[in-house]
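The authors assume throughout that readers already know how a fold can be written as discrete tokens. The format is easy to grasp once an entry is in front of the reader. For illustration, here is how one protein appears when written out as sequence plus structure tokens:
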Amino acid sequence: MTDFKSDLIRRTEEVEQTIYQWLPKEEGFQKNLIEAMNYSVTAGGKRLRPMLLQETARLFGYEGEDVPPFMAAIEIIHTYSLVHDDLPAMDNDDYRRGKLTTHKKYGHAQGILAGDALLNYAYEIGLKAVVKSSSPDRTAKALMVLSQKAGIYGMVGGQAVDVQYTDKPMEPEVLQFVHELKTGALIQAAMTAGALLAGAKEDEIEKIEKIALMTGLAFQIQDDILDVTSTMEILGKPVFSDEKNNKTTYVTILGLEGARQKVKEYSDSAVALLNKLNYKNEFLQNLLVSLIHREK
């Protein structure tokens, strides 16, 4: 796993450089807003979603021109969700990745606008990719998946239910729904878009969607675990945030060990299904496994 860790650091840096190439120039009367957008994207992070998109495309043997803009688009969408998630009306967090959250640095109004602008800019990047693509059908399908998984049938829908149940007990099936949409959907979007851009077959795409969903669930439950076991110094954001906001998590329902077991079950299932495909990507497999061992 040591070689994987160094490889992960290198590839994360490469993914970041790809994303940064798509960021808007900080100029014009709206310069302050664009600065807030870029600040949010460049504040750091695991870059998991664009990496999953790229590595899934590689799994099917594709490293073409359509991949980089979609890597940027999905990370920008993820970033907008974090900007809005940190707002006073939501989780009301002051720090993200060890830095001031966007609304704390640029003000509440600019925080809202930065999130709005990031979401629209991500779709602008995706649409430009469709127009310029030599395989517009594939890129259009990938953008459609990205749009659906980011919206009311995906991430935003999950977040809405999560907010609705703040300060209220949440049944396990509701919690499952929230996790599948709030976190799982965008990871599904990443891997499914990568498969679509690569021209994967329909049955292969269905398997990728299942792998991605299980990966997303494992990732979110591990996030819940870290919220009660880690520190702000390691995590880069406030701990005990779920408790502060009276949110039901797998930890509150199953306990710490039960939640850890769930992470392992989902992660093992994702890897097992990945191994059933007729394609191999050792780095992608190690990346999925690493999710249950992460400390931040």
In short: The chain has a mean pLDDT of 91. The CA atoms of residues 59 and 280 lie 6 Å apart.
